[in-house]
Amino acid sequence: MKHILFGINQNPNKAIENKILDKYVATNNENFTFDTEYYLEGIEKALGEKPYDVLILREDLEINKQVSFQFLDRITDKHPTLNIILIVNDEHQSDRYIIDIFKLGIYNILYKEDLTLPNIVNLIDNVRTKIDAKIYLELEDANESQQEVKEEESMLEIEDEQLLTIIGNLKGATEENISEIFDGISQQYNEKQMVFLVSLLTDDIRRLLTQSGNSNYTTFYNKLNNVVEKVAKAEVVNKNTAKKESFKEKVKVEKVYIEKEKIVEIEKKVVEKVFIEKEKEVKVYERPNDYKKKVGFVGFSGAGKTTLVSLAADMLSTSKLKTAVVDLTLTRDLYDIHIFNNLDEDEDDKKEKEGKNALLSLVGGSLRPYKINKYVDLYTASYESKVDYGNPIYYLQLLEQEYDVILIDMDYKTPREVYQIVNNAYVVHTLDIAKLKHNTNYEAELKDHINMKKIKFIINKVIPCGITPKMINHCLKTNTNLETSHRAPIIEDEVPMFTVPYSAEISKMAYEYTYSSKKLDTESFEAIKNIVQDIYPTNIKTEKEGLFGKIGKLFKKEKGKVIKPEELARELQSEVSKIESPTEEIAPKKEVSNKAESSQVIKTNEILEVDPDELIMEE
């Protein structure tokens, strides 16, 4: 019996996998077992833990992240007998991506236009020969000698955006931390890529690395001189031309991803509604095993976004969720809050060093956080530290491998690439209408670059007055030119909104730099809880529950007053009677339909229509 690992979409209902299984049984009169993973990291981990005969993988399994040549190279090296069926987009026909994969010995490549149940079932049992793959992929006329050279060069390449980020971080490093940053980078790339990287370093960077005595740098530098000196020099000579061409290509790809992202968001809403309905009735939360969430908080100075980030992180930690807090602001207030103002005399130097180096290490590719508590890690730096944020997609993807939730503190200067990788961005505002121009101008700048369906509003520090959160919500969706009074809509659809009341307790926490969700008043606790549940659905319990909790509340309520025994007895008896004779009925468990997810997919007779986040197969 075959064992198959699926990585085809991020829908947990496994409808597609079961359709393939049914067709396989009908065709071969035998069964197979299967597992499903939803992210590339999970696939790599599963392959290392359990033997599989077949991997059925979709190129765009993860949004905005193509299955890379390097990922497939690792898989084929570690699992040489694995039958990999790779489903790729039609626009790749005979391009460099297909040629590179073909060179790895992956011959069961299937274009989406040919994605049918019979084709999938056929490839499960039959691995194409090299000649058959050439004919299907239309590579029979490819010049073998040229492709050998291209393959050799591709092994040396590092993606342009990552390359610029790495070199920028090394330029901003000092003699004290450059060795640590370089070691972190060397853990992320193979030997040939590191030799290529060393060939592009400036004299200043090389001098610092030499002075630091870094052994990794010495090794790669010697290999550069002894093994690939000619290749490295050729890359440097042609660098400018090659980068211009590749950047043009990347712009085109990015547009395609953004379009896909819009479609995915529509389907995602349907799935979330199903989970919320289930949550209310049976009080359980169902998520994929490797479910991850990345969210950002942005707003004007004083709106309270950093406070909300700190409270959300603390509340997530009560559910034992491993959380990373990343500070990508100019002022980096999280350093002051959690590190500088909480130093112990005996640990000043150690903590301060950890705090200063955490963000620098992260952008250099190394995870060395400052620990707030057992479940929350902080990546920040002091205001004086020079940190080049570069393209954060690279290092935020590193965090995905270690954390359940990533909370990002942002401002108007945070790199726009963050919005490509976050699931949602919370725009934080208050009832102060004079500050509206800051957020609306920022939203107007984002409109043409990101999917605005990711935006959600948080109206913070709400007090009863003539201005309501609903008014602010409406204003945040429109940009007003203060000079011409011209109004232009930024977001036309309804935007999810959360409100947080003004709280003296929260203000006290902000002044004392000690954030604890357990100390919140009931109204504020529920407001923060609603935001946290939106970020990552999980069970969050209040400290005081049950009969003894209620008794405790009664005594706390009457503290400082003279309580008559008979009055206290009546209140206690009332609480006991509520427990003995519950008035609330438990709602019956409803069956959750999985048909909603496919409502927008057009079924055809033979060819499978493929949505970005789901495959629906019909013969």
Provide the CATH topology of the domain at 295-535. Answer: Rossmann fold
CATH fourth-tier homologous superfamily of the domain at 295-535: P-loop containing nucleotide triphosphate hydrolases
Assign the CATH architecture of the domain at 295-535.
Answer: 3-Layer(aba) Sandwich
Largest sheet: 8 strands, mixed
Distance between the termini: 24 Å
**Major sheet strand order:** 8-9-7-10-6-11-12-15
Unreliable runs: 141-155, 228-284, 580-619
Radius of gyration, in Å, reads 28 Å
What fraction strand?
5-15%
InterPro entries: P-loop_NTPase
Region (Disordered): 575-598
Characterise this structure.
The chain has 619 residues and is α/β, with parallel strands linked by helices. Among the domains are: 68 residues, no CATH class; 241 residues, 3-Layer(aba) Sandwich (Rossmann fold); 35 residues. It is 47% helix and 12% strand. It contains 25 helices and 17 strands. An eight-stranded mixed beta sheet has the order 8-9-7-10-6-11-12-15, with helices on both faces. Helix 4 links the parallel strand 4 and strand 5. Helix 1 packs across helix 5, helix 10 packs across helix 12 and helix 10 packs across helix 13. The protein is globular, with a radius of gyration of 28 Å. The chain starts with a strand and ends with a strand. InterPro entries: P-loop_NTPase (IPR027417).
